[in-house]
């Protein structure tokens, strides 16, 4: 089992040392260097295998072996052989469902190009930049049918029709049906066929074990001329298997019948529970025969992900101006962050002011360009104070965005800030402006 390591820092290691599965951003777990891809709950796969293999093992040891003497020729051996082969076939289908790419759509490294918000903004003026946005929903036409596709913030793409984002695997999956915890994988376009064959073969296996347990009880009744209850007491393993397979049949047989209905109407589990196509026309329904052909006889498309390919790192996306016009679907959150950042300036000034008064800090941090915001009176007073103390330095002692001042100058600036705050921030003669202004 491979756990995705944390991303390396730039400059450490070479790009050729990493493969796609090693830098995968989803929650998948990879085996054999990316040859098998599982969901994050792959441990449940071991439980599912045990729930299949253990009852069949008990059946072969305590039931089928005793039936070998009751049937002539090779019929007794065939009972054990069929049970073993059927179990192996069932587990192979389980692994084909769980260990392959279900139809993951590769996520984009950057958001798609935004569109103009509206045409009126384009003519707003020569000095204004039109706002750009990524619409949450787009309309696309497929085979003459218009579908609404949604934008995925995680994968930074517009999902194709019938695609959905799995919150467990953290991937967008084509023709997403559901995430099955029993197989530890999403069920989608590339593994739905194997999933249905798995649950259908599991149903047949339950019926097989259930039926031959009753056959064995019947043989005991005939050989010992006893009642059914006494015969059942002589083979407790058969009773346990009958109860177990009866309960399991209700689950897997019901699931098989439900998916037979979905296949016949060309729906997915997600679409059936969310859209309810039985109340309106289903644009994907091609008729019962064609729907079954599409599911079982059409070619499975190749995976869109080469998990063993070498990673080709892309350069970072150049920053875009918020005021200049880029607006993502979550732009409201960005605006809140900007406002919070503005208030944080005052909070920082207040905390530093308190430290200055307590004598615990000897530096007052002023952001770039803020010294020029001081009123002429304040600058003159500070300059005179600094010259008198002999502490004035070139460019006000600027070091990495901060300013070195003597304690006297710092106390003076702190008093100016305090007076400005007490005056409601409306004074135009001695106000210290701490908000960064756009250049």
Automatic annotation (TrEMBL):
<feature type="compositionally biased region" description="Basic and acidic residues">
    <location>
        <begin position="380"/>
        <end position="390"/>
    </location>
</feature>
<keyword id="KW-1133">Transmembrane helix</keyword>
<keyword id="KW-0812">Transmembrane</keyword>
<keyword id="KW-0472">Membrane</keyword>
<dbReference type="GO" id="GO:0012505">
    <property type="term" value="C:endomembrane system"/>
</dbReference>
<feature type="compositionally biased region" description="Low complexity">
    <location>
        <begin position="392"/>
        <end position="403"/>
    </location>
</feature>
<dbReference type="Pfam" id="PF01529">
    <property type="entry name" value="DHHC"/>
</dbReference>
<keyword id="KW-0808">Transferase</keyword>
<feature type="transmembrane region" description="Helical">
    <location>
        <begin position="45"/>
        <end position="64"/>
    </location>
</feature>
<feature type="region of interest" description="Disordered">
    <location>
        <begin position="350"/>
        <end position="403"/>
    </location>
</feature>
<feature type="transmembrane region" description="Helical">
    <location>
        <begin position="76"/>
        <end position="97"/>
    </location>
</feature>
<keyword id="KW-0012">Acyltransferase</keyword>
<feature type="domain" description="Palmitoyltransferase DHHC">
    <location>
        <begin position="150"/>
        <end position="274"/>
    </location>
</feature>
<dbReference type="GO" id="GO:0019706">
    <property type="term" value="F:protein-cysteine S-palmitoyltransferase activity"/>
</dbReference>
<feature type="region of interest" description="Disordered">
    <location>
        <begin position="417"/>
        <end position="439"/>
    </location>
</feature>
<feature type="transmembrane region" description="Helical">
    <location>
        <begin position="237"/>
        <end position="263"/>
    </location>
</feature>
<dbReference type="InterPro" id="IPR001594">
    <property type="entry name" value="Palmitoyltrfase_DHHC"/>
</dbReference>
<comment type="similarity">
    <text>Belongs to the DHHC palmitoyltransferase family.</text>
</comment>
<dbReference type="InterPro" id="IPR039859">
    <property type="entry name" value="PFA4/ZDH16/20/ERF2-like"/>
</dbReference>
<protein>
    <recommendedName>
        <fullName>S-acyltransferase</fullName>
        <ecNumber>2.3.1.225</ecNumber>
    </recommendedName>
</protein>
<feature type="compositionally biased region" description="Basic and acidic residues">
    <location>
        <begin position="350"/>
        <end position="370"/>
    </location>
</feature>
<feature type="transmembrane region" description="Helical">
    <location>
        <begin position="194"/>
        <end position="217"/>
    </location>
</feature>
